[in-house]
Design brief:
This protein has 413 residues and is mostly beta strands. It has no helices and 38 strands. Helix content is 0%, strand content 55%. A hairpin with a 3-residue loop joins strand 10 and strand 11.
Length: 413
């Protein structure tokens, strides 16, 4: 995620009414500043005084911009051939296919024999995930907040706080010391006087817990060591993230860091509480608590068996019968076994045949704030407003927000 109100100075080039500072590196190593354009069927890079043909360019590095929230909670990563991968949400795996929703909100159903596997996004073990689709039994509520079908990030409902005094709290054990707590929230049009708080509950004796305050001034933090100016709010879904690492707490909204504060070696997050201080509507959805895992080298794949990769690195071989966002069923020599994703790093499908490499452009992009780069090989199609459209061999036509783009590397013709 980017720091709030970055201090870096960029050179802005005004071309055709749009301000970009993208950089193209040609095949001699020279750098040009400008933007990627399409004229009829031909792509080029428009720089000062010249336009470079794609065949002259090695790669384009896009100007860093705040990344918008993803369209769904990013719990999994779909592994495609030749180290391609996209973050998103697994729907299900059956004997022949995999259903998956990408970070940009595209639902795809793909033949599993053409896929490498599915891993957990960001090397993070999901401890809790509540999509507010069924009930509030796991939450401690006051003032009768209720599920609402008026707004939802991905499913059909979310939790609505609309009356002063309402609150909803969720706790867990053990306390989280290295990981993240994420929550989507939706703000409607501003009203003259509104105020909500989202507090991170620590297992300590602090008098006041670190909190995000949402009011007419925007989003700002309280009860922290260091904070940045309020982030203006807008009527859309936002992503709140509490990140805990190396005895430090950082609070983000979307791609902006609003606060940071030290933690003692005994402090960890044990809960979250959202409260309405005034009347007015606030929806919350897709609550996720995840624990960061140490990186491990991915296991070697085999031709005739599926592989289930456990949290500590152990491997189980057999046939993956089915899977969904919460669990996996493996049929092995010891019989069938169901395992939750909280114990699994990834699943990989048998690879009987090597898949040929694609000659298309390599596109790297950020799927959401705080997530590692994704990579696909696809043919560029066109710009549609702020989206780059490309055609992928398996995913079909994909649409990536310009703010998410990191780099496009072009194959040698």
């Amino acid at each position: 995620m980017t720091q709030s109100f970055p201090q870096s100075i960029v050179i802005l080039l005004m071309l055709g009414g749009l301000t970009y500072a993208d950089q193209a590196v040609d095949r001699t190593g020279k750098t040009h500043t400008g933007r990627l354009e399409q004229d009829t069927d031909a792509w080029s890079f428009r720089a000062v005084g010249a336009a470079l043909a794609i065949k002259e360019i090695a790669y384009i590095r896009f100007d860093a911009q705040p990344v918008p929230p993803p369209k769904i909670p990013l719990l999994h990563r779909l592994q495609l051939p030749h180290d391609q991968h996209v973050a998103g949400l697994l729907q299900h795996v059956d004997a022949k296919s995999v259903a998956f929703v990408t970070s940009w909100g595209q639902s795809v159903t793909l033949p599993r024999e053409k896929l490498v596997g599915i891993e957990r996004a960001n090397d993070a073990a999901t401890l809790l995930h509540d999509d507010f689709e069924i009930d509030l039994k796991a939450w401690v509520v006051a003032g009768n907040p209720a599920l609402s079908h008026a707004q939802a990030v991905f499913g059909k409902s979310s939790l609505l706080l609309d009356t002063a005094g309402q609150s909803a709290a969720r706790t867990w054990q053990p306390a989280l010391r290295d990981g993240s707590v994420r929550l989507f929230f939706f703000l409607p049009e501003k009203t003259p006087d509104f105020r909500w708080t989202c507090e991170l509950l620590l297992d300590s004796s602090r008098d006041a817990m670190p909190a995000l305050i949402i009011d007419r001034d925007g989003c700002q933090c309280a009860n922290v060591k260091k904070s940045w100016p309020a982030l203006p709010s807008s009527p859309r879904w936002h992503l709140l993230a509490f990140e805990l690492r190396d005895e430090r707490l950082r609070i983000f909204v979307d791609d902006y860091c609003l606060a940071e504060s030290p933690l003692t070696d005994k402090e960890g997050a044990k809960g979250l509480r959202c409260s309405a201080r005034t009347d007015g509507k606030l929806w919350i959805d897709e609550f996720v608590v995840s624990r960061r895992l140490p990186s491990l080298p991915r296991p070697a794949l085999v031709k005739n068996q599926d592989l289930l990769w456990l949290e500590q690195g152990e491997q189980l071989f057999g046939r993956i019968v089915s899977a969904n966002a919460r669990s996996i069923t493996l049929d092995a020599k010891f019989g069938k076994r169901d395992l939750p994703w909280s114990r699994v790093r990834g699943i990989f499908f048998a690879q009987p045949n090597a898949m040929p490499a694609l000659p298309d452009q390599e596109i790297t992009f950020r799927p959401g704030p705080g997530f590692a780069l994704d990579r696909v090989r696809a043919k560029l199609l066109r710009w549609e407003n702020t989206k780059l459209l490309a055609r992928h061999e398996l995913l079909g036509e994909i649409a990536l927000e310009r703010a998410c783009l990191d780099k496009i590397r072009f194959a040698v013709e």
